[in-house]
Fold this protein.
Amino acid sequence: MGKNNLKPHVVIFVEGDTDQIFFDGLLEYYRNQSTTPVHSCEVKNLKGVSRYTSKVTGKLQNEICPKALKKGLEVKAVCCSYDTDVFEFAERPVVDWKKVEREVKMLGIKEFCQVRVERMIEDWILDDMKGLMKFLRLTEMPKLSGNNAFDKIQLLFKRANKVYFKGISIKSVVGTIDYDAVRKCRKTALKELEQLLNVNID
């Protein structure tokens, strides 16, 4: 198959299990709601931000790009999603994003973008408080306290006599998330990703 006949493929790199499940759910939402065909896409979990550049380029070069080619796809864009709380108090940048972009483009991949998850993925989950309360079968909105969104979700789960575990609890929650509500709150953060995926919902 000639290169001109290859269909575009987008890769989203995330840093953890919760993010992976959340973005898999987001992609399903896009496929169901977009009025235009959404490009082929996959979510890859890097399990943290250590050795970020080498992990991204290694996976692309040795695993993702060759597999995509066999399926008649070409990796046209890479999106790196990350929770900003990891970077807030670092004395020096944890990841050199310019270097990541440069090395990704050296592989012949034309587009690169970042999806900044302010401050952690639990903040985005809390954008759909209504759905979360329905899932937990809570009838009254409790006063949320805690230093961050993770603490607040833990409190909500505790009120429902449940325990919130990162990467485990979201598996059951993700099916009830109203991604419309999340998208309305995070439209700016998701704008470039949606353009690269050919998403058109508005």
About this structure: The longest helix spans residues 52-70.
